[in-house]
Amino acid sequence: MNKLPSIPVTVVSGFLGAGKTTLLNRLVQRADSGRLAVIVNDFGELNIDAAIIAEVTDAVYSLQNGCICCTVQEDLLAQLVSLSKLRPALERIVIECSGISDPQRIVQTIGYPQLRDRLHLDAVVTLVDASGFQALEGDMARLSRAQVACADWVLLNKVDLVTPEQLQAIRSSLACRAPVFETVQAELPDELLLAPPVRSSEVLFKALPQTHDQLFESWVWNSPRPLQAKALRTWLAQLPADLLRLKGLVRLDGSEQPYWLQHVGSRSQFTLATGQPTEHAAQLVFIARRGSDLRQELEAGISAIQVA
User: Looking at per-residue confidence, does 162 or 116 come out higher?
Assistant: First the structure.
């Protein structure tokens, strides 16, 4: 019996809000999604990113309520083994890490004995938010730099939101061995997007401590009532810096169609959602700095702008 070819695995990494899901959406829409499987990890108990990708492909697998490189690493291993056995065989697997994941641990997982003859690492692609990278401090800055250090490509995303001088300073501070591509909305030419480079070396970087996910806390807020659109935008503009990420599905007053809400830093984006269940009028995932004690304050604020 002929041995089946090894399946290439692409790992998409980057800090919270860097644009990973946007890139993955582009890749899935341009690739033969029937031969491609996508694993999406979200730190929270609700996997919003997987739901967004599921709008454009059925071949999406969700790993949630933990970090893919530590607390749900065994789930990742089991999922990869299962995907490697699918027939007809897959042509590619793409893993979208959560924003708090250290991709080096995922690289190590792909090299486990039970996967070594079935899968191989094709590339680690790390996205960097040009508008937020220099504001990261302490452990969060170290995590972001570890994601960059592991990359075969770096996508310096959202370059339209910074000045040329700021962009040059960010490029200098990255100090990475990988080629850097400047992007807006994670837009890349097809020849780059669909053909990541084979890794040129086996250089391994020191992985972060397994407790790095303890830097963050996450929770889900649901509401049976739509939100007031104008009041929501005002509330979003006043969110504290210790809220690192907010994303989810919302219905707004005066609109029958739900929207995906993505908020990071001082920026919010609304995109039309299609084919989503209507169990909740609003379903949001909050990711904050652990110990910031924001939950009660934020939930009180958003509850006050529900449609009566």
Answer: 162
What band does 298 get if pLDDT is binned at 50, 70 and 90?
very high
In this structure, the answer to whether residues 174 and 272 fall within a common structural domain is no
Beta strands 282-289 and 243-250 are: antiparallel
CA atoms of 293 and 291, how far apart (whole Å): 5
Residues in CB range of 89: below 8 A, 6 or more apart: 4, 5, 7
Tokens for 87, please give them.
């027939």
- Are 165 and 54 part of one and the same domain? yes
Check: CB of residue 107 under 8 Å from CB of residue 24.
no
∠ at Cα 157 (151, 161), nearest 5°? 150
- 67-126 tens-digit pLDDT: 555 556 788 888 899 889 888 888 888 898 888 888 888 888 888 888 888 998 888 889
Give me the helix-helix angle, 73-84 and 103-110, nearest 10°: 40
193 pLDDT more than 60: no
- The answer to whether residue 1 sits within a structural domain is no
Q: What is the rounded CA–CA span in Å between residue 186 and residue 148? A: 16
Q: What distance in Å separates the CA atoms of residue 38 and residue 97, rounded to the nearest whole number?
A: 11
The number of C-alpha atoms within 13 Å of 163 and in the hemisphere containing its C-beta is 3
H or E stretch including 39? strand 36-42
Specify whether 30 is located in the same domain as 143: yes
